[in-house]
Design goal:
This protein is of the alpha+beta class. It contains three helices and seven strands, in the order βββββαααββ. The radius of gyration is 22 Å and the shape is flat.
């Protein structure tokens, strides 16, 4: 499953064998917003249009649009880890919130998650009666080319 990103929203791309199309849904919001297309390029365009329609509808009706990520979340870490985190934050003269945010950012940067990309490579062997040649072909455009950068 691929997940395109647009204006902070994430969607899915799934294949429907029965219907012969691609379809998806905007993730991490309370409303159910779906879209479909016949090609990868189509589904990405229709995903973006679905996000734009959702935001326009919310603006027209005065309904606040769900934000996929509010910037706040609850984490259960256990009493001992909580205590140690508070002690380290205090030692660094920062808040617990700042310590947790810095720790998450450091973990993401350490793992190097700044770009997620999916490409297809194919080894093709062409054989005739006199020669055998291997060609490596790579798609010019990755399937997921949006930059993933969770921490600014």
């Amino acid at each position: 499953m691929n997940k395109p990103l647009y204006k902070g929203y994430t969607g899915t791309i799934d294949v429907s064998i029965e219907d012969g199309c691609l379809h998806g849904q905007i993730l991490f919001i309370d409303d159910i917003i779906t879209y479909e297309g016949n090609t990868v390029d189509d589904i990405v365009v229709y995903f973006k249009e679905a996000v734009d329609r959702y935001l326009a509808y919310c603006k027209e009706t005065g309904k606040p649009a769900n934000k996929p990520y509010s910037g706040t979340f609850n984490v259960r870490v256990g009493q001992e880890l909580h205590r140690k985190a508070v002690e380290v934050a205090c030692h660094r003269d920062i808040t617990l919130n700042d310590f947790v945010a810095q720790s998450i950012k450091a973990a993401i940067e350490q793992d190097g998650v700044v770009r997620i990309e999916h490409t297809h490579n194919h080894n093709i062997t062409i054989t005739d009666s006199q020669t055998s040649v291997t060609v490596v072909a790579t798609m010019e455009k990755p399937l997921a080319w949006e930059k993933f950068n969770a921490i600014n």
